[in-house]
Amino acid sequence: MSNRLLHPDALQLTSRDGLFLTGVRRIGKTTFIRRDLIPQLEKENALVIYIDLWENRGSISPAEAVLSKIRQFLAESPRLSSFKVTFPGVSLSFEPKQVGIPSGVSLANVFSEIVAKYDVNIVLIIDEIQEALKNEAGLNLLTALKAARDAVNLRPNNPKDTYLLIVGTGSHRSILTAMAARSSQPFYGTDRQDFPLLGDEYLQWQVDQMKDKSKVPSREALREGFSILGCRPKAFRQLLTHIQSYPGVEINQTFVSLCTNQARIDANEFLDPIRNCDLITRLLFTEIAKAGLGGCTNLFSSAFRAQLTKSAGLDRTISASSIQGKLGTMQKNDWIYPVSYGCYAASDPQAASIWLSEEESD
After folding, report:
1. What percent of the chain has pLDDT over 70?
2. Is 243 in contact with 258 (CB distance < 8 Å)?
3. pLDDT of 88 higher than 80
4. Closest Cα to residue 43, out of 85, 76, 2?
5. pTM of the full predicted structure?
6. Number of alpha carbons in the 13 Å side-chain half-sphere of residue 244
7. Please, is 79 exposed, middle or buried when counting C-beta atoms within 10 Å of its C-beta (0-12, 13-18, 19+)?
8. Read out DSSP for 212-242?
9. What pLDDT is attached to residue 360?
10. I need a surface site. Which of 79, 154, 212, 218 has the fewest CB within 10 A?
11. How do residues 312-323 score in pLDDT, each as one tens digit?
């Protein structure tokens, strides 16, 4: 990913407009950013500013959280301090406390000056970026960041090929999709990608960390259990540790069983609100869950509306506008997201799978 940002090929140049990574919670997005991506970016001489809006929610507004972090970085960054030695006589024309205030200096001027004077890439990473949309100040901040991006990246003289690169991550797939796809949003046209799930290399690495390998499930059992958990590393590690205390058990079967039970427990947080919804919403979610990752495209067809009406026990055929209203609420709650126009998929595929298994058993 660092190559995509700092050394993009011809098909990756759009990442300079921004890159949004989406994925359900607890699949390792934040860990990857902090432990892998940021060190690699810094190794390649980029200035990295990281803000976690989920961590700060409730205590400070998203806009102020971002501005405070930028001010802190400008005041305390060892890298910026080192530039005073590398570039003697070259200093910034503003004080950190002036950044982002009405009578101070704009983000566009801040980042333009840093890039121009020090010939360095700046990577701004905002974790759970959708939190910025919760109020007008947050939306204004995104607009200011877009203006800063354009000021830096579209400057006519750029011999060192340096840029302001903005990365946003989020667990609310519908909102991040809209942030990138709607022309009314500041980051319209930004690349949006699903966060890649961990695979066999991670499973092997996790096993290699264990001192006692006498109770390590087979590769097939590890793979099956990890998949059942929705590829969530924290739950996987906990169960792998937990099974070490089981005396004389059939290790593979027990591990998969533990993963299945844990997956059902974890899915309840996602599924309980849907279980408490009206029948039509539940039927819509079932149809979407059945469609899988590719999404459901028949929700507005006459045949499906007739089937839905019959299943709901209604006399009058359910209208397309009524279905659209239900889908809008489901998107707002992050139960589903639009794959494309008129096509919807479940936001948490693993929870959707558990929902279907429960429906079949009823």
Report:
1. 98
2. yes
3. no
4. 2
5. 0.84
6. 13
7. middle
8. --TTPPPHHHHHHHHHHTTS-HHHHHHHHHH
9. 82
10. 212
11. 999 999 999 999
